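Input sequence (356 aa), recorded before submission:
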Amino acid sequence: MEYIIIGLLICSIILEIINLIQKKDNNDMTERLGHFETNITKEIGEFKYEFSSNLRKDFENLNELIVNKLNYINDKVNERLEDNFQKSNKTFNNILERLSKIDEAQKKIDGLSTEIVSLQSVLTDKKTRGIFGEVNLNYILTNIFGEKTGIYDLQHKLSNGFIADAILYAPAPLGTICIDSKFPLENYQKMTDKTISKEEREMATKQFKLDVKKHIEAISSKYIVPGQTAKEAIMFLPAEAIFAEINAYHPDLLQEAYNKKVWITSPTTLMSTLTTISMILKNMERDKYAKVIHEELNKLSLDFDRYRERWDKLSRSIDTVTKDVKDINITTEKITKRFNSINSVDVKQIENKDKN
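Predicted structure, token format:
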């Protein structure tokens, strides 16, 4: 804006000079130039003062604007810093809380490890292992079939005097199946213990296989009774690891069990087998009720046929009675008309006619 004003002043000076030249009056031109110089000097001074004042005001406004912006930015930065500090503090507190939970979980894990070690020490006793297997077997049977359903029986005594841990009354062609729990843990732990020598592990492996074969032979001879049980029996291993070891590395034991008609199961495979049997039993029960319903529907159909026949007979009888009623009604009307005509006859008039 200021540069435009200066430009206009210069243009006016030039125009004034041109006018003076055109008039060719030197004295007058000198006087005019003097006045013009004075005016120019005055205007330039005023312009400088005004320009300086405006410039100072602009700088003051700009400075105030910059200060306000800086204060606003400072407030925003403080606000962001405070917000981030709160979030960081919250995150830090969460981390401390998580660390405390992790520490607590670690303590529980340590306690659980101690309990597992104590459990292993308890399971070193054969009788305790037997009870452990029976409890697991009972738990699985109860979860699959429920309690006191009559589908299975615990600690069932056979006719040969031996007592099976459980007996399952499965449908044909399976029949009555004995289930006995076995837990060959001691030699299995030795054969999988990497801290002992290879020779000791090999000896433990041989002994483990002998233990399993003895269990297979015992189940086959005790719990397969001709005429009372099925031709097969189930050996329940309450440890998945032992079951996996036999299936993965000892096919000869599987062949031995197959030859002796003994099924080797773990908790998982036994649950699958029993679940399948439970579904078969439910389907058989459903089919039985469906057969009963079908028979009752057939009987209902026969009864309905009799009902329809009797209803038709009754309908025909009703039609006959209705026709008879109509005939009787017609006869009644005729008789009524006769009586009416008789009643309307004048007896005295007839007597007078007879006298005449």
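Checked by second reader. The two ends are 162 Å apart (CA to CA).
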